[in-house]
Write a structure and sequence with these properties.
The protein starts with a helix and ends with a helix. It has 15 helices and 29 strands. By secondary structure, the chain is of the alpha+beta class. Helix 1 packs antiparallel against helix 5 and helix 8 packs across helix 9.
Length: 522
């Protein structure tokens, strides 16, 4: 936390504490009470009023600022907290990497103009980068989907690790990096004329069809996506391209109470339409084996129809698409061409643990909660909506990611800046060095280090009931950066052994040499 607080102070952020138990009314005003889904932990009090354990605090902080800030002269405002958050994760795993209760640092920015808000975004991104660099982590900043938090500019900070949940795609030429969910182009256009018949397109052996639903508010659209057989539909990118709140695959056995009134067709840009998709009139228009199999999942006598029926009726021409689109909707993978305009590089895949997420929110929350400020009359005679951003950093996940990426067969290797203690002193007693004598010498070393800038960073292992081997193995397992052993060499010539955890190096030094040796390593 000291590293985080130092960097937050450097960009003029102010620390505060917000409630964990939040009334549903605030969330209903932004529409997120219904959007959050089962991940939000909800409860009722004895009167039946609904609350949640805050997974995030956009609504709370916006309501606070709305009631206390009225003029542009009170901005910019950057407020942050480090507190416990709660999310009902479906599959908690890897200890602190993904849990239902976790410590998170979240900052919320309030600016009078979009330009000022984007400046805050850039300054906070730079501060986060300094935090990751101070921790010695191999990290990447990737373009990402904004999810139900919303906003336009959105990036994630990932720690590179083979156990990461996310796939990152980085161009080997331009170095642009994106989460696989976000990787893709913005190509999308209306296809006025399709050069062929949809039946031939849908039945083509090298292509596959996937029925999806797009939800925007209470409206639901059916979209039939056609793409190469070895490609997958990128739901996150599909949602973004079509401006929907949510996108889902329709399962083969999902049924509709009646024939959908409208179905749209989207053809992926990787399909070469110049090859032509014409269906010979003499060719029997029977269902493909795949569609036949899917159709059996719903009883034939049912009045309802399933997704396979919808696909088949579009293919037979019985259901005319209301619109046809050409769009880039496939999942990108390592080895694919870079999606950035003018770049001829290729994508390299790696896995990452998401430890930070930053958003430029614009006026999404200030509009819903009516957070306004008065501005100079030459700019506007009416109050303006506040421009916002939010910036999250997973504190417990950072610690867990450090352990996952910095360890060996003996245990953890803590970076010095986050180690519980930087130095452990292990005095070893024997017949020639009784406990009282060696503890007195250990106390001298302790006092020297404490007085030399390591205050609060030194600990003595005085467990004389344990064997020397057990204590030194335990020190390696705990991962403290430095161990000072007062053993045989100390009895012989007054030298101590300095063990460096990261390199496994051992140095025999006189006590006055310890401070410089530790500082030299860092």
């Amino acid at each position: 936390n000291s590293i985080i607080d130092r960097e937050m102070r450097s960009i003029h952020e102010q620390k505060l504490a917000m409630p964990v138990l939040i009334p549903s009314e605030l969330w209903r005003k932004t529409g997120r009470w219904d959007q959050m889904g089962p991940e939000m932990m909800r409860m009722k009090d004895r009167k039946g009023s609904q609350f949640c354990l805050g997974p995030t605090h956009e609504e709370v902080i916006t309501d606070l600022v709305r009631t206390t800030v009225s003029s542009f002269r009170q901005l910019p405002l950057r407020l942050y907290q480090t507190t416990v958050k709660y999310r009902d994760e479906l599959r908690p795993r890897y200890g602190l990497i993904r849990g239902r209760e976790f410590l998170m640092k979240d900052m919320y920015s309030f600016d009078a103009t979009r330009e000022a808000a984007l400046k805050t975004y850039d300054e906070t991104r730079a501060a986060y980068s300094r935090i990751f660099e101070a921790l010695g982590l191999d990290y990447a900043i990737a373009d990402a989907d904004s999810g139900n938090i919303g906003g336009s500019n959105c990036q994630e900070f990932h720690i590179i690790s083979s156990i990461g949940d996310d796939v990152l795609l980085r161009c080997d030429t331009c170095k642009h990096t994106a989460n696989q969910e976000k990787s893709g182009t913005q190509l999308k256009s209306r296809l006025a004329v399709f050069p062929g018949t949809l039946g031939a397109l849908i039945r083509h052996p090298n292509l596959r069809s996937q029925l999806c639903t797009l939800a925007t508010g209470s409206q639901r659209r059916l979209l039939l996506v056609v793409l190469n057989r070895d490609h997958e539909v990128n739901l996150f990118h599909l949602k973004s391209l079509f401006g929907a709140d949510d996108a889902q695959f329709v399962k083969a056995d999902d049924v509709f109470p009646a024939m959908p009134g409208e179905v749209e067709v989207c053809i992926d840009t990787s399909i070469d339409l110049s090859m032509g998709f014409m269906l010979d009139d003499a060719e029997p228009q029977t269902e493909s084996p795949e569609l036949q199999h899917e159709s059996t999942l719903v009883a034939a006598q049912s009045a309802d129809i399933n997704s396979a029926d919808v696909v088949e009726r579009v293919g037979r021409g019985e259901l005319e698409p209301s619109q046809m689109h050409l769009a880039d909707v496939r999942v990108r993978n390592g080895g694919d061409a870079c999606t950035q305009r003018g770049c001829d590089g290729h994508l390299v895949a790696s896995r990452g643990i998401e430890a930070g997420h930053i958003f430029y929110l614009g006026t999404k929350y200030s509009e819903s909660l009516n957070a306004l400020v008065n501005v100079p009359k030459e700019i506007s005679s009416a109050p303006k909506l506040i421009e916002m951003g939010c910036f999250g950093l997973g504190v417990t996940r950072l610690l867990a990611a450090i352990v996952e990426t910095s360890h060996d067969n003996h245990g953890i290797i803590w970076p010095a800046v986050v180690a519980p203690y930087r130095v452990m002193i292990i005095p070893l007693a024997n017949r020639d060095q009784p406990e009282d004598f060696v503890m007195a010498k250990a106390a001298e070393v302790y006092a020297l280090l404490e007085a030399s800038g390591f205050e609060g960073d030194v600990v003595i292992d005085d467990r004389f009931s344990e064997s020397p081997g057990y204590r030194m193995n335990d020190a390696r397992f705990l991962g403290l950066p430095f161990v000072v052993v007062l053993g045989k060499s100390f009895r012989a010539d007054g030298t101590v052994e300095l063990q460096i955890r990261r390199t496994s190096q051992k140095l025999n030094l006189q006590i006055p040499e310890l401070v410089d040796a530790i500082r030299a390593v860092g």
